[in-house]
Amino acid sequence: MAQNITIGTAPDSWGVWFADDPKQTPWQRFLDEVAEAGYKTIELGPYGYLPTDPSQLADELAARDLNVCAGTVFTAFHRGIDGGRQCVGGSLGASTQGGRADRRHGRRAYRGDPGDVAR
C-alpha cells in the first residue's frame, strides 16, 4: 500500500522566533520563499508573525498555494491555575485563526482547537 508523506516547513526555519522582532525575515518574504522552495504546507509560527485576520491569511496562503498544518503556542502548559488548564485554554483560544483561514479553502488544520482535525 502506497503512503503519502507531506513535508512542510515553519517560520523558525527562517530564523523567526518572535512575532515582533524587526530583524527577522518579513512574513511576505517567508511565504514567497517557502512557495519558491516547493513547500505546500507550513505551520504558522509565533502568533502575530503571519496575518492574524483569517481572511487576509487565507488569501495570502491561497496566492502561494500553501496549506497550514499546525501552529506554534509559546506557553507553559504545565503551569497555571487548575494544573495549567486555564493557561492551555487561553493559549489555544488565541491560536485558532489558522484553522479558520484554512477552512475557507476547504481544508482543516490542526491548531490545538478540539474542533479542528488534520485532513
Kindly report the spatial arrangement of strands forming the biggest sheet: 1-2
Approximately what portion of the residues adopt beta-strand conformation? Answer: 5-15%
Percent of residues in helices: 25-40%
Order of helices and strands: HEHEHH
Rg from C-alpha positions? 15 Å
What does the overall shape look like? globular
Structural class: mainly alpha
Mean pLDDT: 74
The quaternary structure here is: single chain
The count of DSSP E runs of length 2 or more, i.e. the number of strands, is 2
Largest sheet: 2 strands, parallel
Count up the helices. Answer: 4
End-to-end separation in angstroms reads 19 Å
Walk me through what this model shows.
The structure is a single chain. The chain has 119 residues and is mainly α. Helices cover 31% and strands 6% of the residues. The chain has helices at residues 27-36, 54-63, 85-94, 97-103, and strands at residues 41-43, 67-70. A two-stranded parallel ribbon has the order 1-2. Helix 2 (54-63) packs across helix 4 (97-103). The chain starts with 26 loop residues before the first helix and ends in a 16-residue tail after the last helix. Residues 84-119 have low confidence and may be disordered.
